[in-house]
């Protein structure tokens, strides 16, 4: 499946928020959004246009989709599955949606601090450097369950400096991580407005 291979920091500038797509650089003063806090393009330094309700929903969808490195068809399927689960288990659709994103193998590897970015995590998984429950696994989009264990077999990939705390629902020791429970809403990026994405797909 194809992916965006262009300049990562242009995506952050497009959305007006740091998507942390460039590993350590994203957390430094050198990140593109700090240096050029306007949208990319010839007239990017003009004031951002006022958006309609649909435009606001679309931009939120694009922001979250790019943050997790998910393509449109896959992103919509995640929404459909979250809608199904919320009806079956009588749970919050927004939380189900965010959990499906957070519990992707590439996302858990990144959140555990074992990869500098989700893109780097995906590459390590595809190249066979990650084991799931003791077996080599190469599907970045796989949903990690409670009590699942992940091991990174390429120690040099892990960043030497941690830029954010590991969430409490992930237990990390050396190059291994374990999902000890499912995340709650307060433990997932508070900048995400999942209600706008639900409204977008519910149109």
TrEMBL record:
Gene3D superfamilies xref list: Ribosomal Protein S4 Delta 41, Chain A, domain 1, RNA-binding S4 domain
Which PROSITE patterns does the UniProt entry name for this protein? Answer: S4
Q: Which GO terms describe its molecular function?
A: rRNA binding; structural constituent of ribosome
Domain RNA-binding S4 intervals: 103-161
Which taxonomic lineage does the organism of this UniProt entry have?
A: Bacteria, Candidatus Dojkabacteria
What does this gene product do? With S5 and S12 plays an important role in translational accuracy.
The Small ribosomal subunit protein uS4 N-terminal domain extends over 3-102
The alphabetized UniProt keywords are:
Ribonucleoprotein, Ribosomal protein, RNA-binding, rRNA-binding
Q: Does Manganese count among this protein's keywords? A: no
Which residues does UniProt call coiled coil?
A: none
InterPro entries in the record = Ribosomal_uS4, Ribosomal_uS4_bac-type, Ribosomal_uS4_N, S4_RNA-bd, S4_RNA-bd_sf
Q: Which GO terms describe its biological process?
A: ribosomal small subunit biogenesis; translation
Extract the Pfam families matched here.
Ribosomal_S4, S4
Q: GO CC annotation: what is one? A: small ribosomal subunit
Q: Which family does it belong to?
A: Belongs to the universal ribosomal protein uS4 family.
Name this protein carries in UniProt: Small ribosomal subunit protein uS4
Quaternary structure, per UniProt, is: Part of the 30S ribosomal subunit. Contacts protein S5. The interaction surface between S4 and S5 is involved in control of translational fidelity.
């Amino acid at each position: 499946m194809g992916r965006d291979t262009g300049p990562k920091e242009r995506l952050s500038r497009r959305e007006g928020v740091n998507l942390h797509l460039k590993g350590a650089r994203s957390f430094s003063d050198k990140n593109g959004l700090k240096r050029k806090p306007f949208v990319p393009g010839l007239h990017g330094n003009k004031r951002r246009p006022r958006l309609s309700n649909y435009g606001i929903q679309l931009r939120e969808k694009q922001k979250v989709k790019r943050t997790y490195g998910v393509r449109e068809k896959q992103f919509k399927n995640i929404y459909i599955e979250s809608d199904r689960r919320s009806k079956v288990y009588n749970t919050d659709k927004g939380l189900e949606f965010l959990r499906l994103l957070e519990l992707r193998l590439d996302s858990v590897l990144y959140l555990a601090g074992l990869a500098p970015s989700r893109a780097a995590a995906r590459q390590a998984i595809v190249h066979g450097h990650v084991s799931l429950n003791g077996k080599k696994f190469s599907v970045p989009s796989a949903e990690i369950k409670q009590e699942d264990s992940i091991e990174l077999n390429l120690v040099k990939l892990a960043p030497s400096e941690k830029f954010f705390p590991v969430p409490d629902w992930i237990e990390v020791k050396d190059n291994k991580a374990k999902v000890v429970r499912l995340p709650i809403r307060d433990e997932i990026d508070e900048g995400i407005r999942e209600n706008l994405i639900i409204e977008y797909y519910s149109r």
